[in-house]
Amino acid sequence: MSALLPPGVSAQQFAQALTAMRAVVGPEWVFANDEDITAYSDHFAFEDVSVNLASAIAAPLGLDQITRIIAIARDHQIPVWAISTGRNLAYGGSAPRKHGTLTLDLKRNNRILEVNEELAYAVVEPGVSFFQLYRHLREIGSKLWIDTPSPGWGGIMGNMLERGVGYTPYGDRFMWQCGMQVVLADGTVVDTGMAAQDGSQTGNHTYRYGSGPWIDGIFTQSNFGIVTKVGIQLMPEPPGYRPFLVTFAEDEDIAPVSDLIRPLKMTHVIPNAAVTCSLNLEAATSLDRTKYHVDAGPLPEAARRRMMADLNVGKWNFYAALYGPEPVMDAHWEVIRDSFATVKGARFFTADDRKGDVVFGYRTKLMRGEPNMTEFGILNWMPNGAHLGFSPVAPVDGKTALDQYRLAEAICNRHGFDYTGMFIVGFRAMHHIVEPIFSRSDEDQRSRLITMVTELIDEAAKRGYGEYRGHLSFMDQIAGTYGWGDNALMKLSQRIKRALDPTGIMAPGKSGIWPEKASS
Ligand code: ADP
Predict the structure, then answer these.
(1) Positive or negative torsion for Cα 458, 459, 464, 467
(2) How many angstroms separate the alpha carbon of residue 106 from the centre of ligand 1?
(3) Model confidence over 202-245: pLDDT tens digits?
């Protein structure tokens, strides 16, 4: 039994609460020994894991058990942190924001409740992983595609609630959310959108807004409720698919390339969430860093040039795909070639040119929504590797892209890390995902990483750049960078929080939103 207690809860109270929870879910679904608790920690932690652990874990099955566990938590004033599959690695994994919070593990709730082939959507519970939905669709002979993040082992709901992105034309995953069921702190169950109509079966997962304020968005990246069901619209398999790669020779090319992408994306000539990937990230997926550089500090230019030649890639590598009937893809390909050919040194590759290429292979899968784990190869970039996500948003604009890249690279390099980043391109904005890779066994690196990310967030904010998502350890800092108008946005979130969860039992500290009586 763990000695750790939720903040402000006595040992006796906690024991009583766990007894009550065991009675609801069965004794085998409440975990409170040290080994289990460690299993639910952040496996990519850069801080000492022992300062950020759950006090126990309860794994309810079904809506009734979930609401009863929440009632017990409420009665005993025990804060709970919901996870769906708990694989939020690089942003905190399964760990809660506040030490001692009880983890509510929802992964047993893993039913695919519906697949509608004609209207192209699915309805899933929290524990459904990308792999699971993908395999299910293939097993039933469905012609629907999912959209998946690069490690496909995580969950559809957890990732959607974090507003994660993928690589198909449905890459902005939350944009395709339609219909949600939420449990509030007082036990109320709410079905949003069209499903709020008494007895409604029409349009629950085809029209997301229903009538009145559209509230689904406030349950993303928040601690206002626990989501128990979600509808996700899916992409019908297109008649044709052609992934391609365009490589660019110089670091500065990120500017013209981003400017060229903008009209192509906005007019849907490039339909998918394409990626402009840096050389270092490409290399980290498939190469051993020590073969190129053994000394401390970031990779020197000569080593980078060698990697570029060995991999036959560029300093920037643009992966995108065409979808549709052959004549449409032919026509779009012409436009794309003519556009990018204006950048000196641009080289074009199709699937035929990149046979056997590991990176092209897994990007080909991602852009057609096939989950895989290849990108985790970056963990072999150094012994005991892990990575963190620093993820500012940039408009699809060359000047900003170059400035963000230069800023991130300079700060990473100054702290002895490589810049390993990519720009995932949406229609008007790009997710600039910087994934510093570090060694978990190197204490000095871990401490430098904390200073570095703190600086990255602050320096980005000074230039007006904000993150789309952040690691548990930086949630307060990131929230602080959205402080316009005397913190008007955070004050609004806090008012919603006080109204929906007055005693503050749900996920204290999530996205910097704290209950009245608690703080980090
Ligand atoms: P994944 O495994 O898909 O990466 P997680 O299950 O780790 O995602 O969830 C990521 C984060 O999203 C959690 O830490 C939590 O803050 C939030 N979250 C996950 N599931 C829920 C849920 N069902 N309701 C509310 N918030 C959730």
Answers:
(1) negative
(2) 9
(3) 789 999 999 999 999 999 999 999 999 999 999 999 999 999 99
Distance CA 226, CA 228 (A): 6
Q: Which atom of ligand 1 is nearest to the CA of 156?
A: 3
Measured distance CA(69)–CA(406) in Å, rounded: 48
The angle subtended at Cα 284 by Cα 375 and Cα 131, nearest 5°, is 5
**Collapsed DSSP state (helix, strand, coil) of residue 339:** helix
* Cβ atoms 449, 438 nearer than 8 A: yes
Pair type for strands 235-236 and 144-145: antiparallel
Sign of the alpha-carbon torsion through 452, 458, 459, 461: positive
Please report the atom of ligand 1 found closest to the CA of residue 155: 3
Measured from the CA of 159, which atom of ligand 1 is nearest? Answer: 3
Length of the chain equals 520
The pair of three-digit structure tokens given for residue 410, joined into one six-digit string: 């300079």
Domain ranges (residues) in the chain: 11-106+501-512, 112-236, 241-470
Tokens of 171: 């890459």
Q: What is the DSSP letter of 284?
A: H
Residue ranges lining ligand 1, Cβ < 6 Å:
82-88, 106, 126, 154-155, 157-159, 161-162, 226-227, 507, 510
CA angle 474, 479, 483 (to 5 degrees): 145
Task: Label residue 66 exposed, middle or buried (CB < 10 Å: 0-12, 13-18, 19+).
Answer: buried
Distance 86 CA to ligand 1 centre (A): 6
Whether pLDDT at 78 is above 90: yes
Closest C-alpha to 401, from 421, 427, 375, 378: 421
Predicted confidence (pLDDT) per residue in 311-331, tens digit: 999 999 999 999 999 999 999
Strand ordering across the sheet containing 316-323:
347-350, 241-248, 316-323, 274-278, 421-425, 429-434, 393-395
The gap from C-alpha 475 to its chain's centroid, in whole angstroms, comes to 14
The pLDDT of residue 198 is 84
How far is residue 520's CA from residue 515's CA, in Å, rounded to a whole number? 10
Q: pLDDT at residue 76 above 80?
A: yes
* Ligand 1 centroid, distance to 157 Cα (angstroms): 7
C-alpha closest to that of 472 among 98, 97, 39, 82: 97
CATH class of 112-236: alpha beta
Q: Return the CATH class of domain 11-106+501-512.
A: alpha beta
Topology annotation, domain 241-470: Vanillyl-alcohol Oxidase; Chain A, domain 3 (3.40.462)
* Residues in Cβ contact with 188 at an 8 Å cutoff, skipping those fewer than 6 apart: none
User: Is this prediction's pTM over 0.85?
Assistant: yes
